[in-house]
Amino acid sequence: MLDVAGLTGNAFMTANVIGTINVLPREHVLAAGKPIAAAFVELKLPEVALMSAEAKQAFIEKAADVVEQAAEGRLKRDHIWSNIVYAPEGAWGIAGRSYSNADFVGAIQGTAAVL
């Protein structure tokens, strides 16, 4: 995500890009009504992140590449689904603080100067 957004090395963003991995038994994931091996990538962001169609496409493609490589042949690329979910203005929180879009951009720019 940081590569796609041009924020590699940004201290604020590096510390606040987090992820989870949820593993479900194969019989709990269905496509066309049949159990399959699958992966789901969901990215949750403030409204000001990855705003262009090109940025979204770049993230989705890179995420599929990473998942496909990590699966080492156990997963078809056709069974990798992605979505991007945006938090509304002021609904993005870190450490108990609500960030407006302007606050979020300011935090990113504030740490960029330190690099």
CATH architecture level-2 label: 2-Layer Sandwich
CATH topology value:
Macrophage Migration Inhibitory Factor
The largest pleated sheet is described as: 2 strands, antiparallel
**Structural class of the secondary elements?**
alpha+beta
Q: Could you state the CATH homologous superfamily?
A: Macrophage Migration Inhibitory Factor
Number of strands: 6
List segments where confidence is low: pLDDT < 50 over at least 5 consecutive residues.
none
Structure description:
The protein has 115 residues and is an alpha+beta fold. It has a single domain (2-112), classed as 2-Layer Sandwich (Macrophage Migration Inhibitory Factor), CATH 3.30.429. The protein is 36% helix and 23% strand. It has four helices and six strands, in the order H-H-E-E-E-H-E-E-E-H. The protein has helices at 2-5, 11-16, 53-71, 101-112, and strands spanning 30-31, 34-35, 39-46, 80-87, 92-94, 97-99. A two-stranded antiparallel ribbon has the order 1-2. The chain has a two-stranded parallel sheet with strand order 3-4. 9% of the residues are buried. The model has no long low-confidence stretch (mean pLDDT 89).
List the helices and strands and how they pair.
Blueprint: H1 2-5, H2 11-16, E1 30-31, E2 34-35, E3 39-46, H3 53-71, E4 80-87, E5 92-94, E6 97-99, H4 101-112
Parallel strand pairs: 3-4
Antiparallel strand pairs: 1-2, 5-6
